[in-house]
Amino acid sequence: MGIYVLIHGAWHGGWCWDKVVPLLEKEGHKVEAPDLPGHGSDKTPIPEISLQAYAERVCQILDAQSEPVILVGHSMGGVVITQTAEYRPEKIKKLVYLTAFLLQNGEFLLQYGEPDKEALVLPNLIMAEDRSYATVREDALKEAFYGDCSNEDVMRAKSLLVPQSAAPLATPVSTTADNFGRIPRVYISCLRDRAISPLIQEKMYSNLPCEKVIKMDTSHSPFFSAPEELAGHLLSL
Questions:
Q1: Which phi and psi (to 5°) does residue 227 adopt?
Q2: How is residue 15 annotated by DSSP?
Q3: What is the pLDDT of residues 187-220, one digit of tens each?
Q4: N or C: which end of the chain has fewer CB within 10 A?
């Protein structure tokens, strides 16, 4: 059977996949859902967090696997899997972008985040005085990330979110056609997303075409609101 590696987005941790992991494992697959540096239970200090550090963490996980994996990135995790793919193309069977930032060589996340007038994240950011990290206003979290999620899931997420290092959001990806460009890509678009609007999602997967685009009628967090549907899409790959 296959190996899935699930990479979370900004502020979150591997915990966000808790409903999806058992659904994939039940079908006989191996699943890894790690915490990136500074997220979840990882205590890497903010000054040491970078896009490079994120990618190196994922490379370590890929190197430990017995075969190429299906590498899934949610939201900011899309930037991470893109950079990882440049470093380890031979370890990846397919890249899956779940309502994620899909960037071309030289682009960085905020290039798409700042012009997104329908998204609610940037207008509700609270930056640290030294601008090294950011949080999101608590009263905006549900509408931005969890619009169709249960109150229980929203409360749990709020208790586990961590400050997000600013550095990875402003670091360009560095990719080539020979490495990143050779790996098949799939985009899963979430049509009620208020963190990355559907218009911006479409712009990214149009600029960098994927072999398949799947559409889900959910908010930014289908791993909470529609885990069975999401797992079904992942299993279909």
A1: -65, -35
A2: G
A3: 999 999 999 999 999 999 999 999 999 999 999 9
A4: N
> Residue 22: enclosing H or E segment and its boundaries?
helix 21-26
Two structure tokens written together for 157: 């997420």
Q: How far is CA 173 from CA 78, 102, 231, in A?
A: 11, 10, 28
CATH for 3-236 (3.90.1150.200, 3.40.50.300, 2.170.120.30, 3.40.50.1820): 3.40.50.1820
Q: pTM for the complete prediction?
A: 0.98
Contact predicate 97/78, CB 8 Å: yes
- pLDDT for the residue 114: 84
Kindly state the tokens that stand for 98. Answer: 């779940």
Q: What residues have CB less than 8 Å from 73, skipping those under 6 apart?
A: 7, 9, 79, 80, 81, 82, 95, 96, 97, 98, 100
- For 2, other C-beta atoms within 10 Å of its C-beta total 18
Cβ(108)–Cβ(171) below 8 Å: yes
- Count the Cβ atoms, other than its own, within 10 Å of residue 127: 11
The owner of tokens 């007038």 is 117
